[in-house]
Amino acid sequence: xxxxxxxxxxxxxxxxxFIAAFSGFVGIIIYANVLGAAGLxxxxxxxxxxxxxxxxxxxxxxxxxxxxxxxxxxKSSYASTGIIITSIYVILLSISATILYNNFSILRxxxxxxxxxxxxxxxxVFICFYILLGRIYSGLGEPGDSVMVDAGKGIIETILQxxxxxxxxxxxxxxxxxxxxxxLAILYLLLLTPISFSKPTYDSVISIKNFAxxxxxxxxxxxxxxxxxxxxxxxxxSPSAVGIYEASMRIIMPSIYVGYAIEKxxxxxxxxxxxxxxxxxxxxxxxxxxxxxxxxxxxxGGIFVSSDLLSFIYGSEFVTGxxxxxxxxxxxxxxxxxxxxSSFLHGYNKPIPVTKxxxxxxxxxxxxxxxxxxxxxxxxxIPSIIITELIRFYSLRISILEICDTDYRPYRIKxxxxxxxxxxxxxIPVFLLLDISNPxxxxxxxxxxxxxxxxxxxxxxxxxxxxxIDREIRLVQRFIYDTKFE
Length: 486
What we know:
Elements: H1 6-53, H2 55-70, H3 75-103, H4 105-110, H5 114-139, H6 143-166, H7 170-191, H8 202-236, H9 239-252, H10 257-275, H11 281-287, H12 295-314, H13 322-347, H14 351-376, H15 381-404, H16 413-433, H17 439-460, H18 462-484
């Protein structure tokens, strides 16, 4: 198996993520304006619970993904083993959740209406299998294509949700749309990809067990780490606050996709290079600092336009989320770096430090978020997530230093910071001279800021400039070659 190209696979991942983000963003604008903050919050609470519950399946998928990257045979056996283990887990948890809900009145009185509860259980089942199959497909050497499948699912999901919302299905319609789109994506992965199944073997069970015991714990805690905000805000504040929080964070969520485009192929590449006894540490400081290339300008831009942007997109009910938008962008700067370091360690076959950092972060995040949300309301979530993420980042950085004898120093991030500062200097006069509450002027400011940041970054970052020049030379050479032989 040839080494995965970080650039080409990263391109696929990035394109897929932005397609999914765009379709989802179109959807959330409609959902927010039709259902309001409370209805939107209920949907995201349902999705968060189903996603957290599905993470053991994701952990099994990661173990199969990791094994398949280096295995030359028995890949179908590993896939079958994963399906069987996941099926047992799904059946047991679904039955347990249904029994508990039907037999304990406190659950029925403290949760949303029964239709949302049962749909959440069904959603959990489909998400669990979908994530597992996506991981298996990625482990076959197609990390970029697996994300493109996710992008296609996102488009279908948005279309279905809008149709169901149009016909008056409300929050339930959003959940049903997600369920149907996930089911269709599962069918695609089973029928139209190279995923195959064969009789499980004892060796396949042991191999998955050895890695999954850590990857299951890591992915479960990581998702709790990421999704607990939604659940804690719903508990300590209100479903409306969840809707405002999620809607605000969705605007800046594209900032994490560059990091995702790096981390997914990086895990595969590191695994493959280690199997071939190649050096992998140079990859760390070369590409990983670019994980935050979008989150930094979004943080700076959010300072200028957050309130007006939220009002324009979602309505005046969501303006209180302006501090969430700015603080969330600051959080994503650190979060993207942490996630790439986690993927590097997973690819290095050292999942234990990642698990420890997630468990530590989850405990600190849960306690600080609970305390701050209870005392300060929705705004309390921001210091909680930033402080916790800094602790997780430094924990992973120390682990890499101990394991690889390499100190992660993202010097290349300074070009992103300089570009963002330049952007802010250019847009300050625009901000002061124009009425940004006018959508036209607001988008003029966003366009000027984005163009300034991009132009500055390309000109001062030697690595990005070298990639662009290299690709231009290849295009010219290809054009000359094609013209010559016509």
